[in-house]
Amino acid sequence: MKLLFSSVFLFLLFGFNFAQKYEKFTEDEKSLIQSNSSEMMRVYNLVNSNDSIVLNSSSKTVDPKNKFTKLLAERMLLSVNDPAHKGVGIAAPQVGINRRMLLVQRFDKEGKPFELFINPEIIWGSELMQKGPEGDLSFEDRGEVMRHYIVQVKYFNLKSESITEILEGFTSVIFQHERDHLDGILLTDRIEEQKTKNYQYAPGTANLYFLID
């Protein structure tokens, strides 16, 4: 019994701290983030073979309090607001950094601000799905995709505060789209995946469905 209590104590003491450790930015990542730091970063394009390697790769977690995290977020915001190619969301891999952070325009909030999600996870997704057109800053293809109408998400802000909240509608769609980028999953992958699934229309709704297999 004493051994059990000792093991639990050690886990609480050291295991929690271990869970909070993040892999540091590499020198290459720092160089890219700092280069022309007052300007937007180039958005990676799938047609470029080198860019496609980054876009198809899974990303690592990031330390919310690292100074490079804040600078990266600021430059991502400039990129997604590029007047020549404005978007409603962007993920770090799209500017060449395979780290788990993304920006989403909050259409569910007054002023529709962009908000930063660090190390975001989807805890739960509704059975009710919504179908709608999606595009991507990293390639020209567009297509209709099924997404959870409502998702419960967990993430960190720049103060390293853990936040859990519910997203729905268009904001939910943007979050799910950008979250896919962190695992190297693209819009085209989702379109192909959903060709093998069956959905049933939800009566009395507009473009809402249930997955039936």
TrEMBL record:
Signal peptide: 1-21
Classification via InterPro entries: Peptide_deformylase, Peptide_deformylase_sf
Top-level lineage group: Bacteria
GO terms assigned for molecular function: metal ion binding; peptide deformylase activity
Active-site residue numbers: 178
Gene3D superfamilies tied to this protein: Peptide deformylase (3.90.45.10)
Keywords: Hydrolase, Metal-binding, Signal
Annotated Pfam families: Pep_deformylase (PF01327)
CDD domains: Pep_deformylase
PANTHER family listed in its UniProt record: PEPTIDE DEFORMYLASE (PTHR10458:SF22)
Similarity comment text for this entry: Belongs to the polypeptide deformylase family.
HAMAP family per the UniProt record, alphabetical: Pep_deformylase
Protein name: Peptide deformylase-like
